[in-house]
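pasting for ref
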Amino acid sequence: MNQKFQAAITQKDDVCYVKLSGVIDEDNNLTTLVDQIPAGTAVINVGEVERINSCGVRDWVNWLGKIEKNNASVVLVECSPAIVAQINLVHNFTGGGAVKSFFAPYFCPACDLEKVLLIETAEMSGQASPTAPTCRCDECDGPMDFDDMEESYFAFLANTKKIVTDARVDSVINEFTPTDGDKKLRPRSNPGNAPTAKTPSSSPGPNAPLPSIPSLPTMGGSRPGSSPGANGFGSSSTASGVRSSAAAALAELEARRNATSPVPLAPSGRSNVAWFIVAAVLLIATALLGYVLFARK
C-alpha cells in the first residue's frame, strides 16, 4: 500500500464516491477536496487508509464539517482498523455521517497469517455485546482469532446511526467496490508474517548443517499411509522408497564430509620407505667420497 496520501473522486448521478488511501497526516490534501464534493450523498471509502495521526484527525474533522455544510450526507464504507480506532476515540470523528461497513482484523495462529474481514454495520446493530463473526483461514481452513478486544473494537456500534437502505448508494458501492455478494477478505497491510520457504543452496559451505537421515520403518508397524506386509513392515514400495532416501542422504553426507575434511597426510608406511631411501643414498654418497679421498693417497 502506498504510504502517500491519495484521493480519487467519481461522480455518478447525485452520489459522489470518494476513495482515500495512504496516510492521513499533516501533509494531507483534504482541504482541496471540499469544492470537488457537491451536495448529495458522499460515499467515502477509507479501506486503504493505514494510518492517521493527530494532525490528520484534526484536518479530517474539519473537512467533514465543511462538506456537510455544503449539504453533503456522509457515508463511510470499508473503514480500516486505523479508522475504526479513531472512531472509538474521537466522538465527532464521523461528523453527522454514518458507518456502513468496516474491516475487522483476524489472525491465524496455525499459519501465522493476518486477514481483515469486511462487516456490514447493519448486521451487528442491536447486539448488546457485539461479538466478532466467524472467519476461517484461507490456508488451513481453520477458525481465525479476532486480533483485537471485541468490547473496545466494536464500541462505536452503540453510537452509530442506523443506515436506511438506499438502492442508489448500494449500486454505487457495488460498482466501484464489488464483492460478488460475499464478505470481503484480504491480507493486512503487512502480510510479511507469513512464513516463507527457504531455498537450499546448491553449494553448501563448510559450516552448513549435515543432512538428517530419514528413519526406517520399525518392526511390528508400518508408516502412515503404507499398507503393512506379511513381515510387519510397510509395503515393498514404501520400504524401497525409504531405503532410496536413506541411501541418497548417506551419499550426500559422505560427499560433504569429504569436501569439508582436510587433505589426508601420506600413509606412515610410505613415509618410512622414503626415509630409508634417503638414508641409503646418503650412505652411498659418503662411501664414494671416502673411496675417492683414500684412493688418491
